[in-house]
Amino acid sequence: MTDPSVDGLLITDPTKFEKQLKELHVAPEKLASMIDxxxxxxxxxxxxxxxxxxxxxxxGFASVCVNPYWVPLVSRGLQGSTVKVCTVxxxxxxxxxxxxxxxxxxxxxxxxxxxxxxxxxxxxxxxxKHDVVENxxxxxxxxxxxxxxxxxxxxxxxxxxxxxxxxxxxxxxAAGADFVKTATxxxxxxxxxxxxxxxxxTVGERMGVKAAGGIRNFKDVLRMIAAGAxxxxxxxxxxxxxxxxxxxxxxxxxxxxxIPCKLCPVRAADTGKMPKDVYSYYKGKCHExxxxxxxxxxxxx
Length: 301
Description:
The chain is an alpha/beta fold. It has helices spanning 14-21, 28-32, 46-59, 71-77, 98-110, 122-126, 130-147, 162-174, 193-203, 218-227, 237-247, 276-285, 292-299, and strands at residues 35-39, 63-66, 84-89, 115-119, 150-154, 179-181, 208-212, 231-234. The protein has one domain (25-254): Aldolase class I (TIM Barrel), CATH 3.20.20. Helices cover 44% and strands 12% of the residues. Residues 1-12 have low confidence and may be disordered.
């Protein structure tokens, strides 16, 4: 396989993107080092978290990402390895008081977390209160700097328009965060090529971009990387790595998605999960789409 630069694959049209995706090759070790091996559902037990740590060490993942309660256990389980301890702050809603976020971050960092994925104040962002959002993030960033930790800001893109995603990235950068991240995995929309592209174009190479939410297989990962992601959050890290190694030896590598609508964020638009204005915003994109007449059965549900 060839090894073109990722920048050469940053294209908008999903059909063209898919045709070039098969040309992107990332060494398995590099791919593993970009994955935050994640378990954030509330039903996890100690044995499942210990297994998560064992898998992360075996594959060389970037971090193990868990809820704050599990940070001490993960810190012990990863001791002596290069795998980082990652946790979430004000998860998954982001509506905690700023002081509560800082205190949660402090406790997590002191328990061993070196990466903090915080949910921004989504409601304030939608209200246009950018100063509130920035100060909220800056409080956690300042604490993280004292503790030697980095901060990823979760935008929860399914609640935002494209312009609000751009503005959120700019605010996170101004507040001193290290990464912007697509979603919690518990919101109305996960990671999409569309949003990762916007985020990377906004922050350039000055920040990391973490794609998270609904990433289940190696092709999803490659799409996110080609779109600009430098970190991947997923609970399917082992399956992704095994699938990737298998695909390198099989013709499945060349299979591409021929229906662009299946890669479009509009497919996730749902009035039961999204604010009505955001739902209308995404559905409105269908009227101007070049593929509307060909694939309209996928757009209108």
